[in-house]
Write a structure and sequence with these properties.
This protein has 13 helices and 38 strands. With 693 residues, it is α+β, with helices and mostly antiparallel strands. The strands form 9 sheets. It has an 8-stranded mixed beta sheet, with helices on both faces. Strands 3-4-5-6 form a 4-stranded antiparallel beta sheet. Among the domains are: 17-83 and 421-689, Rossmann fold, CATH 3.40.50.1820; 327-416, Uncharacterised protein PF15525, DUF4652 (Lipocalin, Beta Barrel).
């Protein structure tokens, strides 16, 4: 990428000293954090004028310096990706009693239609057209759930990107909203088993779901009863139900500890399952008065499955149903009337195991590709005889099957269509391993065209995340083909901090071991070069959110290694955010990163890698950072401060861009086509960094 000759905006430096644990540091860009940030989340037009002026100047700089000269490439990538999407896509129906519920997309429209048909067949009824409800502004659809008696629809929308939802109640018979709403909910609501009430979460001033309320249909929101309230600012609250529909489940958790409460059996009072124990997690489903729980209790690091009587569910009564097996990570379970289905990962690859609870017979669903992704879902019905499975790989578009729970027979229901054409034989998927400095073997999933020369001359994009135990699936993507078809190798580094190789892989990539996440990613890039998958100086790094923190860290640690860095809503001001317990989600994040307020050791450790703190006077690669003004997860000022400090400190004149979406949050634009435009911008930047623009 050529150096830019435009004059970039320079943010004011304003004195702001912070003293922690006897250490005083200067934060001259702290002013970019609006004092009224909570208000801005819901009313973006209240952003202070000086901050708005700076962000808009950065947006204008991106527009003039990159979007205008690369407009044709951005548009071409947008058209390519859109051309690979079947615009009039219909999902598969989920039966529930006399009806089958579904969603579908129409050609040229941004949002889904929620529909139903009689289970036995018949005319479709449109329950909700999100395109009509969206209007012209941001529209974050929070889902739609029908009542148990199929007469009402509760649907939710976020109008700012700040994840404050309004729940609307719709009369299905008339097709019109009743006018009854629940404002500022943290989710879309869960129906009570009798359909007379909705349970929903409420957010506190720090945007933490901390309270569950019960709204009786037909009554004012002001009368909603508080069902549960969590006093510990480090814990989130969620609400759902068991598939058996016997219990409403209140889930209280941080990133390593959980606690459940059940509502049911004729009582409206929540009943504790088992009191929270630090770093013990469990969740629960119910069958025949017995709870089935996935848990890491008693040292079961890769999880086990236990049972307990629903009337006496405390841990003292837990009995192992499926004991812990080290190295076999159980990811999820589905519980039906006669079967238990589990999704697990062994040696980096997923598999699904079905157990018949009547005779304990088991059978396994697995595939033969080097790298692939599996998913499973239960639908609405507890007494189902099938479950739904999705399969894809980097070369193979998604396939959806119904799996017979008794026979294991697979029925292919749907195969993802690529309207512009796709031949899996034109592509190669590989799984290779990089050797980390401490000897750990880091999996890397690769995708490239079969005719791309693997001789050390190809450019590559390396994606990484590496936090919260989240594993990056080896799945099909219509978007990355726009890179691969231009001769790039696309690679995903399954670095520590995820759970690709079990819970220990996560444990060794968090808190005091966080440095492993960064060095694993660097080792992965070096492996691509050493094995001829990428040319030296032609590896672009990409990551978002906590993966954006990874981008900031590796840019500081090895700026020479990257042809460019693409940082999506990057969590880069780690030390300041983790030191401010008034900010969104900070206390619940301490188990992941450490608490620099209370612990001097945590303070020193985070300060040593926090991207914003470690910006240095040296040459950096080209960088594009994307942000959302109303993002409650990674607040807009984190990338803004980072870019401001980089621009004032770095010694090169390579491009450094910040684009802030002034009307969106963590997920970017809300419409499916608008999101493609953001992807196209990022990929055009990556291509320009390696000389393919």
């Amino acid at each position: 990428m050529t150096e830019t000759t435009l004059t970039p905006p320079l943010a004011d430096r304003r004195q702001h000293a912070i003293t922690q644990h006897g250490v005083t540091r200067q934060d001259p860009y702290a002013w970019l954090r609006a004092d009224n940030w909570q208000e801005v989340m819901q009313a973006p037009d209240t952003l202070p004028a000086d901050i708005r002026t700076y962000l808009e100047a950065e947006n204008a700089y991106v527009a003039a310096g990159f979007e205008a000269p690369q407009g044709e490439l951005i548009e071409a990538i947008y058209r390519e990706i859109r051309g690979r999407i079947k615009e009039d896509e219909t999902d598969l129906p989920d039966p529930d009693g006399p009806w089958a519920y579904n969603s579908r997309m129409e050609e040229g429209r941004q949002y889904p239609l929620i529909v139903r048909t009689p289970r036995a067949g018949g005319d479709e009824t449109i329950l909700l057209d999100c395109n009509v409800e969206a209007g012209e502004g941001y529209f974050g659809f929070g889902g739609a759930e029908h009542s148990p008696d199929h007469t009402l629809l509760a649907w939710a929308a976020d109008r700012q990107g700040s994840e404050f939802y309004t729940i609307h109640i719709r009369d299905i018979a008339t097709g019109k909203d009743t006018g009854e709403t629940i404002e500022e909910s943290g989710d879309g609501g869960t129906w009570s088993p009798d359909g007379t009430a909705l349970y929903y979460t409420e957010l506190d001033e720090s945007h933490r779901p901390f309270r569950v309320r019960r709204h009786v249909i037909g009554t004012p929101q002001a009368d909603d009863t508080i069902v549960y309230e969590e006093a510990d600012p480090g814990f989130f609250v969620g609400v759902g139900e068991t598939l058996s529909r016997r219990y409403i489940v209140i889930d209280v958790h941080d990133h390593q500890t959980s606690e459940l409460y059940l509502i049911g059996d004729g009582s409206l009072e929540p009943r504790l399952v088992s009191a929270r124990l630090a770093e013990r997690e469990y969740d629960a489903e119910e069958r025949g008065g017995l709870l089935y729980m996935l848990t890491n209790a008693d040292g079961a690091e890769d999880y086990k499955i236990v049972t307990a009587p629903a009337e006496a569910p405390d841990a003292a009564h837990w009995t192992d149903l499926l004991p812990h097996v080290a190295g076999v990570l159980i990811l999820d379970i589905l519980l039906f009337a006669n079967h238990l289905v589990r999704l697990e990962r062994y040696e980096g690859l997923p598999r699904i195991v079905v157990r018949d609870l009547r005779d304990n017979r088991e059978w396994t669903v697995a595939f033969d590709e080097e790298a692939y992704s599996l998913g499973m879902s239960a639908g609405y019905e507890f007494d189902a005889t099938t479950f739904r499975m999705t399969y894809s790989s980097p070369t193979t578009p998604s396939r959806t099957y119904d799996i017979d729970l008794d026979t294991g027979a697979r029925t292919l229901l749907k195969e993802q269509e690529v309207p512009s054409g796709h031949d899996p034989a034109d592509y190669v998927t590989r799984r290779i391993f990089a050797d980390a400095a401490d000897g750990a073997r880091v999996p890397i999933t690769l995708l490239h065209r079969r005719d791309t020369p693997i001789d050390g001359t190809a450019p590559a994009l390396l994606y990484g995340y590496g936090s919260y135990g989240m594993s990056m699936p080896a799945a099909f993507s219509v978007s990355v083909l726009s890179l691969v078809d231009r001769g790039m190798v696309y690679a995903v580094a399954h670095i520590r901090g995820g759970m690709e190789k079990g819970y220990a892989w996560y444990r060794n990539g968090r808190r005091e071991h966080k440095l492993n996440t960064f060095t694993d990613f660097i080792a992965s890039a070096e492996k691509l070069i050493a094995d001829g998958y990428a040319a030296p100086g032609k590896v672009v790094a990409e990551g978002g959110s906590a993966g954006g923190m990874l981008m900031g860290a590796v840019a500081n640690m090895r700026p020479d290694l990257w042809a460019g860095v693409l940082a999506i809503v990057p969590f880069v001001d780690v030390l300041n955010t983790m030191s401010d317990d008034t900010l969104p989600l900070t206390p619940p994040e301490w188990p992941e990163w450490g608490n620099p307020i209370e612990s001097e050791a945590d303070f020193q450790r985070v300060a040593a890698y926090a991207p914003y703190e470690q910006v240095t006077a040296m040459d950096y690669p080209p960088i594009l950072a994307l942000a959302g003004l109303t993002d409650p997860r990674v607040t807009y000022w984190e990338p803004a401060k980072w870019v401001a400090k980089l621009r004032a400190t770095k010694t090169d004149s390579r491009p450094l861009y910040l684009k802030t979406h002034m009307g969106a949050g963590h997920g970017g634009a809300s419409g499916r086509f608008d999101r493609i435009k953001e992807t196209a911008l990022g990929y055009a930047f990556a291509l320009s960094c390696v000389g393919l623009a």
